[in-house]
Specification:
- The protein is globular.
- Helix 1 crosses helix 3.
- The chain has 3 domains: 154 residues, Rossmann fold, CATH 3.40.50; 145 residues, no CATH class; 98 residues.
- With 448 residues, the chain is of the alpha/beta class.
- The longest helix has 29 residues.
- The strands form 5 sheets. A 10-stranded mixed sheet has the order 1-20-17-16-3-11-12-15-13-14, with helices on both faces. A 5-stranded antiparallel sheet has the order 8-7-6-5-9. It has a two-stranded antiparallel ribbon with strand order 2-21.
Amino acid sequence: MSSSQRIYCNHNLLLESINLVGFDMDYTLSFYKQEALNTLLIKLATEKLIAKNYPKAIGSLHYDQALAIRGLVIDKRLGNVFKLDQHGRASIVMHGLTTLSKKERHRLYGVRRIQLSSSRYHWIDTLFSLPEVIMYLVLIDFFKDNNKHSFYQQLCVDIRESLDESHKDGTFKSVICNDMTKYIERDDNLCSMIETMHQSNKKLFLLTNSLFPYTNALMNYLLDTMDMPWHDYFDFIVVGADKPRFFTKKKPFDVVDSGMGENFKHCGSQLSSSVIYQGGNLYDFEKMTGYQGGEILYIGDHIYDDMLLLKKRHTWRTAMVIQELDEEQNKSRQLQKQFLNMEYMAREIRDIVYQIEHQSKKDNDVAKINALKNKLEHLNQKMKTTQDYINRSYNVYWGSLFRANSKNSYFSTQLHAYADLYTCRVSNFSSPSYSFYTDRKKMPHEDE
């Protein structure tokens, strides 16, 4: 089995114990062609910013798409964007189009854990938000003479509002619906996966924040080879779910008029497979479907909206679809030589440090110690050069989505904590009775 077909396991899970499988839609059942999507969203947002009296020149700036990956954080007070390591510390920091030095990074953030709960910070954990980072960095650079903290804050607010308006006023969705082939990447194995789930007696549900008109258009496009209308393949359908509040609040379910797509009435005491619902909440969903907790698997793409609360407050099982995973794995395979060199150099560095300590205690031979120190300095510089090469191979600014130099990234730490399984595409769930087990993880002292 190729890596692009594999499902990876963070926490043991037996699919045969799952009776109800749920899917998010955007970036789960449907993939967006990210470059085209970013270009569209940036265009729509800059037009709205110009309407708010921003200079017309921002519409013709170059918005480098490599400036953004998931897992970045916007510092609205200082106008910076940074990447977090597994300990929640800033590992790479950019101000505008300039990467700050290690000395400057330490001056601003030290080695303390960043408190993402602070209103000062905005964490980017969804692919829909990549244009926010791209625009923020480019416009910070464009307005570099305006270095007031109030401007940094307002710029972030204005960019977010402009992007949100493009979603809310229907501009974004109308463009997508008018040219699906340009913006949506179809998965040829999606229909067969759904059929296999049904043949294995799994009940299926769709739970998406998108409203019915857009959901209907997108699902018709994704599943147009199915023998029946797309909604007949799901036992329960909930649109406009308002996640993550769906998992915490008690909003009622409403019945959507699928002909109109907007008119709705209050739901009864049960959820029907022939009805499309809007809103609702997890507590009533469990009660009205008869399925609960660990017999439900929900598959999504967003750590906060789809994963986190299901693991912190509830007992649903979770699986995360990571669109970037396949490309990252391809890059990793190409870098095997560099990874091996890093391991050899790390072992050699540890050995030299031991030799220096031994020489200092034994006879304190200054010439030998200085020679070892020079060799150590050379190796450390070679390690840094190799690490920089590895980082640039993934992304010229930020490196790998899953790593922060030698450490895991904060994104991968969150992924491990809140997603039981993860994979690069939802159609990989083609064996509904498969059992997943984690490997025993070693602690550092267990390598001795």
